[in-house]
Amino acid sequence: MKKAFITGISGQDGSYLAEYLLNLGYEVHGIVRRNSVPEHQQSRIDFHRENIHVYYGDLTDASGLERLLKKIQPDEIYNLGAQSHVRISFDVPNYTVQTNALGVLNILEAYRNACPEAKFYQASSSEMFGSSVDEDGFQRETTRMTPVSPYGCSKVFAYNLVHNYRNAYKLHAANGILFNHESPRRGSNFVTNKVVKGAVLIKKGLAKKLEMGNMDSFRDWGHSKDYVRAMHMIINHDIADDFVVATGTTHSVREMTDYVFSKLGLDFNEFVVQNPIYLRPEELPYLRGDCSKLKKTFNWAPEYTFETMMDEMIDFWMKTL
Ligand code: GDD
User: Fold this and answer.
1) Which ligand 1 atom is the nearest neighbour of the CA of 149?
2) CA atoms within 13 A on the CB side of 311
3) Rounded Cα–Cα distance for residues 5 and 26 (Å)
4) Which among 86, 212, 273 is the best mutation to test ligand 1's pocket, defined by most ligand atoms within 8 Å of the CB?
């Protein structure tokens, strides 16, 4: 039985990855941070609680990470933990960098000291590309990284550190460069789930308007379940390497909002208003990923389309609210 260790196990991706690995017969271990409301801490993994080994831990706590890795001796380490909200990274830049950049240094050191034979996956992000787009309108593994947020800068630091540890210490450390990925488990302060939840509240007569930030940015939105399959392929590749994971299609926030409201028989123009608190000091205007390398290497293909993913989220909130 293979053993996996997941940071960020209670997040959207961590919970889907834990389920995916349990189905493959893995023993799954993960860390959660201490939260003053314990009910909020593990809600996404509650239904697998008996099958998952959960410990308190934090990427900023180097000695705790090393102690756990020494004890568990995992075959695969997935570093999905992060301060993952881009706009909030402007409010808490120091904390974001401590967690997303120095936290990765901590877990790489723990990995190198405790279980160097294991394989390592780093959750790198399309936010690292920032304002760079290739001439054909895509971002890919070779695209220049010019991040435009403290979050993006912290992820570039971590991405480079993974290269450095891979080369310097001959560790099997890989980067998945994931474009935006969503699901009903997405935090409702990220734009897709915020729009779906807000539109359903309006549809049910429970809210009158929805306050948004910039409607003119474009994102390449895939489904988290499809992307955790890619993570498993990437970490198990013979060679530790870097792979873009994306759908290759892009939509504006406005188009996505229009799709959701139209599905519910509503005109978004009547309900959506801009509130400047949701604007970012610097915005990343356009993302569209080319994942040819991933497709060619693993024959990976997403099962969800933009439409089936958004429909699943709409169904979820219609049933839940
Ligand atoms: N969150 C949010 N809330 N975003 C809004 C809003 C709003 O009210 N209104 C407009 N937007 C716009 C943002 O300005 C951004 O251009 C776009 O919607 C997407 O925002 P998010 O859903 O917050 O995601 P993100 O692209 O900033 O970051 C996500 O994707 C990255 C991969 O590129 C996060 O999941 C990151 O952790 C991830 O690395």
Assistant:
1) 27
2) 5
3) 10
4) 86
Claim to verify: residue 238 and residue 314 sit in the same structural domain: no
CB-defined site of ligand 1, < 6 Å: 84, 86-87, 125-127, 179-180, 189-191, 194, 212-214, 217, 219, 253, 278, 280, 283, 287
Q: What letter would DSSP give residue 79?
A: E
pLDDT (tens digit per residue) in 147-186: 999 999 999 999 999 999 999 999 999 999 999 999 999 9
Q: Are residues 90 and 76 in the same domain?
A: yes
Which residue lies with its CA nearest to atom 12 of ligand 1? 214
**For 75-118, how does the pLDDT look when each residue is reduced to its tens digit (9 = 90+)?**
999 999 999 999 999 999 999 999 999 999 999 999 999 999 99
Domain that holds residue 58: 3-181+221-245
How close is the Cα of 214 to the center of ligand 1, in Å?
10
Examine the domain organization and report whether 163 and 67 are in the same domain.
yes
Examine residue 97 and state whether it is found in any structural domain, yes or no.
Answer: yes
Looking at residue 214, what is its pLDDT? 98
* Nearest atom within ligand 1 for CA of residue 127: 33
Q: Output b/e per residue, 278-303; b: 16+ Cβ within 10 A.
A: eebeebbebbbbbbebbeebbebebe
Rounded to two decimals, what is the model's pTM? 0.98
